[in-house]
Amino acid sequence: MNTSSIINYFISDFDKYISKRRSIIQDSRYLDEEYVPNEIRFRDTQKEMILYNIGEFINSNAGNNLFLYGSTGAGKTLIARFINKGINGLAIQRKLRLKVSYINCKLISSKDIDYYIFKRIYEDLTDINLKSGIRKQEIHENIYRYLESSDKKLIIILDEADFILNNNSSDLLYLLLRNYDINIYNRIKFVFVANSISFMNDVDQRVKSSLSSTLYIHFTPYNYYELKEILKERAKNALYENSISEENINYIAAKIAKNSGDARVGINILKMSAEIAASKNKERIDREDIDEAFENVELDIINSIIYSLNKNQRIILLSLLDRQISNKGEFVTFTELYEEYIKNIDKFGMKPLDKTTVYKNLKTIELVLGNLVETSVVSKGREGYKKIIKVIADEENLIKMDNKIRKEI
Ligand SMILES: Nc1ncnc2c1ncn2[C@@H]1O[C@H](COP(=O)(O)OP(=O)(O)OP(=O)(O)O)[C@@H](O)[C@H]1O
């Protein structure tokens, strides 16, 4: 067969299969994690604080470092990307001596995290690729030297910063923040992005005092109304007209608002239910497609949590779930969790870890659970302040998770 007849066959097959299946997704880019809408809604308070501080830094060398924190899917990364793109554009348009470096710390695969971060900052600042073999300290010094000699300012955005802030990162932070001591012109500002600010308890005093002028900006989970509007907007751009009813969008929003308020889950459900409906050759997404999508997503989330934890951590999480279920979904104190853990560990015939080790492992679990967990500190009278914790899910999902983890231990 010659090439042109192969191409003809291909094109005829292509047209046949494309026309056979009715697609529901018109442009999937609007459902991508990377997509940044032109206008970010429901985050006006946060935007105002961020932009005001950045403005102060640009115009009068003032302003604070910023720390954006809050649950998963609350728009932190979206805002961080928006600032990154926006500042770059602003600097070009207004000919400002300003640079921005955006680093997603979760994606750093290098073993030497400090080296990677300094190298990236230097390269973003100077637009020059660094040759290998230059020492970390030297790159660090060159960043300040370059800023002085070129009379520039720099905004460093460290997204998913929990991934480095948890790893004995005091030295990195101290070095990064030290520009206050050595640079009277205050040429660098930081924007940290993380789920929680609990790492602050563990950093040493030098870093704490460097971070004392940091403004903490909280991102709360989205409510029903906000989720519904975000999803409506995405559906309008990504799906063919009339592929999903407003009632069904509201149904997705209501289910998510009840659990996590995570916009990412909402967008994933929208995408997955469109794919499920299309695979059944339907023109519209029905309630059953959405329910199927929820089951897949929930299972995916639970599986990825279980996969990320070792056996001891799974038993600790199981103990938390057991106790929360018997507490009718309410918060669990660490003492209650530990009691439950001792019972469970015995059932699984393992040796118990001491309280301190269980506490440390609980922190890892919190990181893996992300927005699915809520912690707080409450006063318990004479016993002093106590940490309380709960998994954010309704009773049905708590039981589902509990059963699945028990099976996997
Ligand atoms: N206000 C909003 N308008 C439109 N889309 C939004 C909004 N907030 C979040 N999203 C979308 O929801 C998804 C998750 O948001 P984002 O990645 O910003 O969450 P996050 O708070 O950084 O979560 P994590 O802590 O897991 O990193 C993204 O696809 C994002 O585009």
From TrEMBL:
Organism: Nanobdella aerobiophila
Domain AAA+ ATPase stretches: 62-229
Residues reported in the UniProt entry to bind ATP: Y222, R234
Keyword Nucleotide-binding applies: yes
Keywords, alphabetical: ATP-binding, DNA replication, Nucleotide-binding
SUPFAM superfamilies reported for this sequence: P-loop containing nucleoside triphosphate hydrolases, Winged helix' DNA-binding domain
Name this polypeptide is given: ORC1-type DNA replication protein
Similarity field: Belongs to the CDC6/cdc18 family.
NCBIfam families linked to this entry: orc1/cdc6 family replication initiation protein (TIGR02928)
Higher taxonomy: Archaea, Nanobdellota, Nanobdellia, Nanobdellales, Nanobdellaceae
Keyword Transmembrane helix: no
SMART domains from the UniProt entry: AAA
PANTHER family: CELL DIVISION CONTROL PROTEIN 6 HOMOLOG, CELL DIVISION CONTROL PROTEIN 6-RELATED
GO molecular function, one term: ATP binding
Chain coiled-coil ranges: none
Pfam families per the UniProt record, alphabetical: AAA_22, Cdc6_lid, WHD_Cdc6
Matches recorded under InterPro entries: AAA+_ATPase, AAA_22, Cdc6_C, Cdc6_lid, ORC1/CDC6, Orc1/Cdc6_arc, P-loop_NTPase, WH-like_DNA-bd_sf
Gene Ontology biological process terms in this record: DNA replication
Function statement: Involved in regulation of DNA replication.
